[in-house]
TrEMBL record:
Residues of the VWFA domain: 376-562
InterPro entries named in the record: VWF_A, vWFA_dom_sf
Keywords: Membrane, Transmembrane, Transmembrane helix
Organism: Dactylosporangium aurantiacum
Protein name: Substrate-binding domain-containing protein
Translocase recorded as keyword: no
Transmembrane segments: 12-36
């Protein structure tokens, strides 16, 4: 009987029924968007509902601005405006938009099936809009004004920044890359650029260095990207969790000690009071800053488009600047609101790098993909008589011993995902370890390298060996990996019964399959190696030649050569 009376009371209470009718849709909306909902309701002929998907760090400021706006009872043609705000990562929205239109965004992956396409999208960067336009021009609007700004910085734990002398210095990218490649105090990390605008911005900046400094910039960039890969995370939260939790030297040696982040993310991290705060290093030239474009989706109804334009106008001016500052974001002009202060180095970093066209972005992403893909490499080491020569600058070690030391050092750097094989050669060649997964044969490779000894009377069948190695790698070509031959040699080909240089070059050109590239990298040990002859070999297939005129310096040369082993 109690339930029957309760039901009767509900039916007789018009106010409660009206309230239930209003609350239920809002609960459903909140469940669908997982965000914030505000609306005006007084004396309207209907409702224009505007869904906004914004990157998580700016979504609360947009929600607060919407709540204040709705109190003014905005309308479009006497229809009340409702604003639903959801905090969602830009990559999820991009994938949802692409999926809705049956478009593939290179390297982005499929939509998660949960994220809805909004009426207004505020990603963290206009880079996302450029990637969408590259796939199909009408997926996003041509005009998308910026709402906020957050520069890209290099986040470094304070103790590491002090030891590097980076607390106040403004560094060039070349200086940064040199440190990443050569300084053991730095363990680099990054969020996967395929799904993160900060990562993409970093790749664009590195690509510009690669172009400016020729072979040196090339080696530095590739080496730095490979170092970043070792600390790669799929999400920003995963990367942040790898920063050191205390300043103990052992902890610092195993934690991430350099990573590109937005200025906002770094300030938000430090606001939690970590035991080891992060220092922001502002590299020069500045990477593309996050700019939070307001993108009203194409094909909105006239009333919804009008509501979107009204709301965009709200998200500007001093009031919104102050809302942004509470979430560690600058205004779109780089200024800050009440409660946010900038360090001298941050305040002096006012240069704005424009968002590049889609081709530049895609080229930078392709660079990341090519360099970070697993390698499939056949290492070929000279054991001819030329390798027994001793080197005074290396304490009397032989070329062979120096080469083996460098190769062992490189082997220790190779990630488990690589596949590596080993040959030795004199007049003929010998397979010591077949190409196979490094995680299963690292010890076998180390043992085989350590056992190499020069043949005191051995000649050098370099040309025949190079061609045989090229064919071997080509025959097992793997589309998921970079495929290469790395040759370490101490002298010239001197096998009278073998092929000539011209025959080798023509044979390589004939065997080459541009759809299945195999590059040849030659590392020469000592002045006996002829640079011109080696260059003709690598020009036939793609690759590079490195000559260590002083064999004691082969370690540095070897690292540069491996940095270029990206399979292109």
């Amino acid at each position: 009987m109690r339930g029957r009376h309760a039901a009767a009371d509900l039916r007789s209470n018009g106010f409660v029924a009206l309230a239930a009718g209003m609350i239920l849709p809002l609960v459903v909306i909140g469940a669908v968007y997982g965000g914030y909902q505000v609306m005006s309701t007084t004396g309207c002929s209907g409702t224009v509902r505007l869904s906004v998907a914004a990157s998580p760090e700016i979504a609360p400021a947009i929600k607060d601005a919407a709540a204040r706006w709705i109190k003014t009872e905005p309308r479009v043609d006497n229809e009340c405006v409702a604003v639903d705000v959801v905090a969602v990562g830009a990559s999820e929205v991009a994938a949802a938009i692409a999926g809705e239109h049956g478009v593939n965004i290179n390297t982005l992956g499929q939509a998660d099936g949960k994220t809805q396409v909004p009426h207004v999208w505020v990603p963290d960067s206009s880079i996302w809009l450029q990637r969408m336009r590259a796939a199909r021009e009408d997926l996003v609007p041509l005009a998308a004004p910026s709402l906020a700004r957050s520069p890209i910085v290099l986040a470094v734990p304070e103790p590491t920044a002090k030891s590097l002398g980076w607390l106040e210095n403004k560094l060039t990218w070349k200086q940064v890359l040199q440190q990443i490649v050569g300084d053991t105090r730095i363990t680099a990390g990054i969020v996967d650029p395929n799904r993160d605008a900060v990562g993409i911005s970093t790749m664009v900046a590195m690509a510009s260095v690669r172009d400016q400094f020729g072979p040196e910039g090339d080696a530095l960039t590739v080496g730095a990207i490979k170092a970043l890969t070792s600390g790669k995370s799929e999400q920003q939260a995963g990367l942040m969790a790898r920063f050191p939790r205390d300043a103990d030297p052992r902890t610092l040696s195993t934690a991430v000690t350099l990573a590109p982040l937005s200025e906002q993310a770094l300030h938000a991290y430090n606001a939690t009071g970590p035991a080891v705060p992060l220092v922001a290093v502002y590299p020069d030239p500045a990477p593309i800053a996050l700019d939070y474009p307001f993108a009203a989706m194409p094909r909105l109804s006239p009333n919804r488009a009008a509501a979107a334009e009204q709301f965009r106008a709200v998200l500007s001016g001093p009031e919104f600047r102050n809302l942004l500052s509470t979430h560690q974001l600058r205004a779109n002009d780089g200024t800050v609101g009440t409660g946010m202060t900038l360090s001298p180095s941050a305040a002096s970093s006012s240069a704005v790098t424009p968002v590049p066209d889609p081709k530049v972005i895609n080229t930078a992403l392709q660079m990341w993909i090519e360099i970070t893909q697993p390698s499939r490499m056949l290492a070929v080491v000279d054991v001819s008589a030329a390798m027994k020569q001793t080197v005074a600058s290396a304490g009397g070690l032989s070329k062979q011993q120096i080469a083996v030391q460098a190769a062992l050092g490189g082997l220790d750097m190779f990630p488990e995902s690589w596949a590596v094989g080993l040959w030795s050669f004199s007049t003929g060649h010998q397979q010591l370890v077949p190409i196979g997964p490094l995680n299963a044969q690292r010890d076998q490779l180390r043992g085989a390298l350590g056992g190499l000894k020069p043949n005191p009377k051995g000649g050098s069948g370099l040309y025949d060996t190079v061609f045989a190695a090229y064919q071997t790698v080509q025959q097992g070509w793997d589309s998921t990996r970079g495929n290469s031959v790395v040759v370490i040699t101490g002298g010239r080909n001197n096998d009278p019964s073998g092929m000539s240089l011209d025959t080798l070059v023509s044979s390589l050109k004939k065997a080459e399959n541009k759809d299945q590239p195999v590059q040849i990298i030659i590392i020469g040990v000592g002045s006996e190696v002829n640079q011109g002859e080696m260059q003709k070999i690598v020009d036939a297939t793609g690759g590079a030649v490195f000559i260590a005129q002083d064999p004691s310096k082969i370690g540095d040369i070897f690292m540069k050569a491996l940095a270029l082993d990206d399979g292109r």
